[in-house]
Amino acid sequence: MTSGAIEINSPKYFVYCGIGGILACGTTHFSMTPIDMLKCRLQVNSKAYSGIIDGLGKVGRKEGIRGLFLGGTPTFLGYSMQGMGKYGFYEYFKFIYSRAAGQQVAQRHKTPLYLAASASAEFFADLMLCPMEALKVKQQTSTTRFATSFTGGLSRIYRSEGLGGFYKGIVPLWLRQIPYTMVKFASFENIVEAIYKHALKRPKDSFSKPQQLGVTFVSGYLAGILCAIVSHPADTIVSKLNNAGKTEQGMSNSQMVAKIVRDLGFRGIWTGLVPRIFMIGTLTMAQWGIYDAFKVKTGLPTTGGESTTAEEK
């Protein structure tokens, strides 16, 4: 099957999905840098601010616009690379797994297919994200300026911790991002399908592209709320781990994670959830909107609400 000049599930199609992911993730994460910065600081020091408005006001008055967008460069670069892998590999693995399972099995078990494809995609996407995430957290949570430039920050991590410093948070990052992405894609696809089937009660193709994008935005926000809740404990651990500096007293990363969990307790592990729900809900809605708008612009169909088997595509 083709869509305009692009054949669905062709190498060009996957490349375009990756480009859509760059546009969706890099721009939206950068725009939410002030909220993300406050969330990270609250996770490291729960008494830093009384809430979002208080935090934005204090940082803005003390550090200005530059302070509000502290960590913006690694955020933009890291999540652009992650978005490329997340969306491009998701479409690729969805195609590969559906073809391996066969049309009938893939059609009957769409949700496991979404979960497997998104988990596989995020595994590789996080390898691209992790170094930038480490730098971003250090910049945002250090009590003194971590570095005067982006390259200076990278150099400082390498000098003090070696290459391992860029990837010491990879396991908790996987624990945060893989469940997040599984929920993000599987819930989105199912919510879109449910809206067309039960709320609108008409096939997707009977609606205009702007109307389909409206469904995309609604489904994206609902999926984002679920994503934030599922992935928040691991997000807190990532922030604390990257803020810790060198591994203390010869402790391994797993021992550090266990210590962080013990120190925080059940309540502490959920610190910063409210701003993160606001951030992730808005972020996920915007990402799906940008991604699907890009697909529509290039002549591709919007995501969800249709069969996902390789043979039918």
Automatic annotation (TrEMBL):
<keyword id="KW-0809">Transit peptide</keyword>
<dbReference type="InterPro" id="IPR018108">
    <property type="entry name" value="MCP_transmembrane"/>
</dbReference>
<keyword id="KW-0999">Mitochondrion inner membrane</keyword>
<feature type="repeat" description="Solcar">
    <location>
        <begin position="109"/>
        <end position="194"/>
    </location>
</feature>
<keyword id="KW-0812">Transmembrane</keyword>
<comment type="similarity">
    <text>Belongs to the mitochondrial carrier (TC 2.A.29) family.</text>
</comment>
<keyword id="KW-0813">Transport</keyword>
<dbReference type="InterPro" id="IPR023395">
    <property type="entry name" value="MCP_dom_sf"/>
</dbReference>
<feature type="repeat" description="Solcar">
    <location>
        <begin position="12"/>
        <end position="96"/>
    </location>
</feature>
<protein>
    <submittedName>
        <fullName>Cu/Pi carrier</fullName>
    </submittedName>
</protein>
<dbReference type="GO" id="GO:1990547">
    <property type="term" value="P:mitochondrial phosphate ion transmembrane transport"/>
</dbReference>
<dbReference type="GO" id="GO:0005315">
    <property type="term" value="F:phosphate transmembrane transporter activity"/>
</dbReference>
<dbReference type="InterPro" id="IPR044677">
    <property type="entry name" value="SLC25A3/Pic2/Mir1-like"/>
</dbReference>
<keyword id="KW-1133">Transmembrane helix</keyword>
<keyword id="KW-0496">Mitochondrion</keyword>
<keyword id="KW-0472">Membrane</keyword>
<keyword id="KW-0677">Repeat</keyword>
<feature type="repeat" description="Solcar">
    <location>
        <begin position="211"/>
        <end position="297"/>
    </location>
</feature>
<dbReference type="GO" id="GO:0005743">
    <property type="term" value="C:mitochondrial inner membrane"/>
</dbReference>
<dbReference type="Pfam" id="PF00153">
    <property type="entry name" value="Mito_carr"/>
</dbReference>
